[in-house]
Amino acid sequence: MKINKCLFPVAGYGTRFLPATKAIPKEMLPILTKPLIQYGVEEAISAEIYNLALVTNVNKKAIKNYFEAHAEIENSIKGTAKENLLDEVNYISERCDFSYINQEQMLGLGHAINTSKPLIGSDAFAVILPDDLCITQGDTVLMQMSKLHNQYPDSCIVAIEEVPFEEVYKYGIIDGKLIAGSTDVYQVNNMVEKPNKEDAPSNLAIIGRYILTPEIFSVLEKTQPDKNGEIQITDALMTLAKQGKVIAYKFQGKRYDCGSIKGFLAATNYLAKWHNLL
Ligand code: UTP
């Protein structure tokens, strides 16, 4: 029942961060000294997940390089005050197994997840979108969701947060009912990708943390592209929601949308203050 694999779909172009993302993958942009991908990987490790699968593309070699040893730098800082600066990333490299697959065409998050099928196997798996940086006081969001997976092993689980109705057009929005006796777990009946404020069934928005059952692949296979030609994970999950197989979880903690400039700055600011740098 334990989740053993975490998927990072990181093949997107990150156009909101152009021109930087012309040469640097969005996931390599640092919040203080650590790139976004590292915060995501640390969250997977917090949930004791050490098998990490990445959907990338040919222009994102920097991500793979990042998790490999760099003998020259290591030798140059050995015995100096900077010696420990690579410890956090080396710890990850030594501990985790990485696998990679290329998404040939950027046809949406649903397509990226379907591309990962050869890396995943036949068990439920976690998904982290590293541009959603989640900061929590206690358990990380993926730890919280893993506990819920033990209760609902046959359901997909999406993390949700309340957003202002003015912003629902940016998200997948759920239509669901609180499960009896719970204040944060919803049975999802339906979901809508990027609705208008008027058509939104709620203001509960799906953020970049999922636990998916392998059934998602057969559903994604049949999911039609949207009007922009992209295959949306929300559309595939909607099919499963209508069969009663999706749970939404209002997590404890704060999410920063680091795929947007404002969110990236807010996260930087928060962590800088936390480290007494501001
Ligand atoms: P986003 O839409 O936030 O990322 O996708 P993007 O396309 O890279 O960014 P912008 O909007 O152009 O600035 C959410 C996640 O899905 C991945 C992205 O890498 C990101 O982690 N994704 C998206 C893929 O892996 N493949 C795709 O075809 C689309």
Number of domains: 1
> What is the CATH architecture descriptor?
Alpha-Beta Complex
**Could you tell me which ligands this complex binds, including any ions or cofactors?**
uridine 5'-triphosphate
The SSE order reads EEEHEHHHEHHEEHEEEEHHEEH
Biggest sheet details: 9 strands, mixed
Short description:
This protein is an alpha/beta fold and 278 residues long. 31% of the residues lie in helices and 25% in strands.
Task: Please describe the structure with a list of short key phrases separated by commas or semicolons.
single chain, 278 residues, alpha/beta, Spore Coat Polysaccharide Biosynthesis Protein SpsA, Chain A, nine-stranded mixed beta sheet, two-stranded antiparallel ribbon, globular, binds uridine 5'-triphosphate
Describe this entry's structure for a reader:
This protein is of the alpha/beta class and 278 residues long. The chain has one domain: Spore Coat Polysaccharide Biosynthesis Protein SpsA, Chain A, CATH 3.90.550.10. It has helices at residues 36-46, 61-66, 71-77, 87-95, 109-115, 117-120, 141-151, 215-222, 233-241, 261-274; strands at residues 5-9, 30-31, 34-35, 51-56, 97-102, 125-128, 132-135, 156-162, 172-178, 185-193, 204-212, 246-250, 254-257. A 9-stranded mixed β-sheet has the order 5-4-1-6-11-8-12-10-9, with helices on both faces. Strand 9 (172-178) and strand 10 (185-193) form a beta hairpin. The mean pLDDT is 96. Bound molecules: uridine 5'-triphosphate. Residues 9-16, 26, 55, 103, 106-109, 111-112, 129, 131, 259 line the site of uridine 5'-triphosphate.
